[in-house]
Structures are given as C-alpha cells and as structure tokens.
Amino acid sequence: MAIKQLTIFVENKQGTIVDVTDTLAQHNVNIRALSIAETEDFGVLRLIVNDEATAEKVLAEEGYLIKVTEVVGVKIGDAPGKLSAALGVLDKADINVEYLYAFMARTEKHAYVVLRVEDNAEAEAALEGAGFHLITNADINKL
Fold it and tell me: Which long-range contacts (CB under 8 A, 24 or more apart) does 114-119 make?
C-alpha cells in the first residue's frame, strides 16, 4: 500500500526548482507534496505526484538523477497530539522514522504525512492496527 516518492538530485542554484516544476507542468504532472533539503552545492527534492511514471520519464530525459522510493502515507487528524500519536505507534513498534513531511488535503480536517521508514509493511500494519488511515496512490490521484 506504499506510495511512490520521487527523489530528484538537483544543483543548488537559482532556477533549478523552476526548471523541474516547469518540466512537470508541461507534461501535465501535478505535484501533490514537495520537500527539499539542501547543502551548499546540491539539493534533494522529494515529490509526491499524480503520475509518477510520466514524471520519472520526463525528468530523466532532462538529465536529472532520480530515485523512486516507496514511502508510507498516513492521514492525520487536525488536532494537537495527532502526529505524536502516529509517531508513538511506530516508536512502540520499534520502527525508526528516517524523515517525514506533511501536506494538507483538500479538507481542513486532516493532513497527509509522508514517512520514510525501513520496513513499509511493518509500519503500515502498526499504523492501521492503531486505527490510522493509510494513503494510497488512488488517494493521491484524487487530490
């Protein structure tokens, strides 16, 4: 049930991100979530998109180094402590979260959180067992 995330390695220079987003827009790929981490020389751009296959193809054709990673997506209620509750489930299951980022859904009642963990199936089972709703690629496509 994991969702696919594109990790794109980009130069840390003006215009690089707009080049990526323009390329995706020209091919009708809609960005659903975005995270970027940077160093002095390069950036790591992580994207959840509505059409991973097209995005991967067109960005590779433009010369970008891309890695597709399966990540866990979980719906979190919009109230204090909800993220902590989800992370607590994973902690109790001895699952380390390597990184996470969030994005708002089209309703104001919840957000989606993308989690990178070592074992997606184990994390998904723990979260579902605790009553959390997991995000699927179909959910991403509906946004």
Answer: 114/3, 114/5, 114/33, 114/35, 114/46, 114/48, 114/71, 114/72, 114/73, 115/71, 115/72, 115/73, 115/74, 115/90, 116/5, 116/69, 116/71, 116/72, 117/71, 117/72, 117/90, 119/95
Q: What is the pTM of this model?
A: 0.79
d(CA 97, CA 95): 7
Alpha-carbon distance of 63 to 137, in angstroms, equals 26
Query: Domains along the chain?
Result: 3-69 (3.30.2130.10), 70-142 (3.30.2130.10)
**Distance from C-alpha of 132 to C-alpha of 44, rounded to nearest angstrom:** 29
Closest CA to 101 of 85, 83, 124: 83
Q: Which residues of the chain have pLDDT under 50?
A: none
Quote the CA–CA distance of 9 and 45 in Å, as a whole number: 6
What digits encode the pLDDT tens for the residues 23-32?
999 999 999 8
Contact 74, 123 (CB under 8 A): no
